[in-house]
From TrEMBL:
GO biological-process terms attached to the record: cell division
Organism: Microbacterium gallinarum
Record's keyword terms, sorted: ATP-binding, Cell cycle, Cell division, Nucleotide-binding
Name of protein: Cell division protein ZapE
Designated gene of the protein: zapE
Pfam family, one: AFG1_ATPase
Keyword Nucleotide-binding in annotation: yes
Superkingdom, natural source: Bacteria
Length: 342
């Protein structure tokens, strides 16, 4: 156990300026803590939505073809799939990431990687495209969680990267909240960009997973809001046994603009709780999207959030929720509610 995980007290995230080298990024390409032990056996399919069990069965077959064959690993094994990847499409909280991690753990691969879309694109930015291709060349499996299309350039880089890896035998597993052929529709009009999207989609077998968000099945859908005295007591209690951050919401949001999203994982390193004071609705979409990326890392690290001000599930105004990033905001709301109740 490192010193950073045993520290106690209060820190301010706005005073942190984390760095992340390429080697650190590669080492971090494993399932997040809450999915470190995820298996197909621990995935509980909701009987009210048959597609969940169907998806599980299909992915068991996909992973089953990963059993080592005579003369090599699963890349050389005979398998009935005609496509090198699976693409899990569904709403929030239906277990897509759990199943993605289950694939990662089930496949007996010598070289396999698990990361979010932003982690892979950040790696390309840190190492360069050519070096990233060489790094992953020969990998047995790449798992990509929450494939995003906010930047056409990033998407085309990933399309090109995946195409090169597939041609050399790498298998792919990805999640998103939108089917591959629909990615980018209504947001980007460039014909060349759409062609890239469709070319990438042809590499995947799309598996639909229906259902309700498990994080909302037993809650009222609202994030917990603390009074100032309650907040101070919660922060003091958390600081007695671990490291808790304490920042005003405005200061934190402003600071996120100075830190690359790929470094948000280091921003929260060593924390046991995240504290935010005086939460207020967003007026700037860029700031809102950075906050979404930050909350993804907080949620992956299983950190509880304590907050005052506006309920965190209300920070994205209606005009933002009605726009092209609606699904990202809804995912963040789902995670914010769960984190404040943890």
């Amino acid at each position: 156990m490192t010193a950073s995980t045993t520290r106690t007290g209060i820190v301010h995230l706005v005073e942190r300026a984390p760095q992340l080298a390429g080697a650190d990024m590669v080492a971090a390409l494993v399932p997040p803590p809450q999915f470190a032990d995820a298996t197909f056996e621990t995935y509980r399919a909701d009987p009210a939505y048959p597609s969940q069990q169907e998806a599980k069965d299909l992915l068991l077959a996909f992973a089953g073809n990963g059993q080592p064959a005579k003369g090599g690993f699963f890349r050389k094994a005979k398998r009935p799939e005609t496509k090198p990847g699976v693409y899990l499409d569904g709403g929030f909280g239906v277990g897509k990431t759990h199943l993605l991690a289950a694939i990662y753990h089930a496949l007996p691969a010598r070289r396999k990687y698990f990361g979010s879309f932003i982690e892979y694109t950040a790696l390309v930015g840190a190492l360069g495209y050519k070096n990233t291709v060489e790094l992953f060349r020969g990998a047995d499996l790449l798992c990509i969680d929450e494939f995003e299309l906010d930047d056409p350039g990033d998407t085309m880089v990933m399309t090109r990267l995946l195409g090169e890896l597939v041609s050399s035998g790498t298998r792919l597993a990805a999640t998103s909240n939108t089917p591959p052929n629909a990615l980018g529709e209504g947001r980007f009009a460039a014909q060349d960009f759409m062609r890239e999207i469709h070319a990438m989609a042809s590499s995947f077998q799309t598996i639909r997973i229906d259902g309700t968000d498990y994080r909302h099945r037993a809650v009222d859908g609202h994030a917990q809001v603390l009074t100032q005295p309650q907040y101070e007591a919660a922060v003091a209690d958390a600081a007695a046994s671990g490291l808790v951050s304490d920042d005003t919401f405005a200061d934190l949001v402003s600071h996120l603009a100075k830190v690359h999203p790929s470094r948000y994982i280091r921003l929260i390193e060593g924390l046991s709780t995240v504290g935010m004071r005086e939460v207020a609705p967003f007026s700037d979409q860029s700031a809102a999207l950075r906050f979404v990326a930050f909350i993804d890392r907080v949620y992956d690290a299983e950190l509880p959030i304590r907050a005052t001000g506006v309920s965190l599930d209300l920070v994205f105004p209606e005009e933002m929720l009605a726009g092209g990033y609606r699904k990202k905001y809804l995912r963040a709301i789902s995670r914010l509610v769960a984190s404040t109740l943890a």
